[in-house]
Amino acid sequence: MERPTHNMSNLFAQLGEASDEAAIARFIESHRPLPGSIRLHEAPFWKPAQSRFLCEALLDDSDWAEVADALNRDLHVHH
Fold this sequence. Notes:
Elements: H1 8-14, H2 21-31, H3 48-59, H4 65-76
Helix pairs in contact: 3-4
């Protein structure tokens, strides 16, 4: 059985954030770069429920893990 795949818009909607492309780009731009020592779910801008969701998505290697990894990369990159 194929695992469902999610995109960045789905992830932001799941997190309760604005999920259109422009809003996602603004969110990432305004919160990056995260220091390398800070893991995605430890970032200070997440609400507790968002942090738990991201942590569980990555630790459980859930179907959200791939897009959460992409968000992690985007937030740690200097542009």
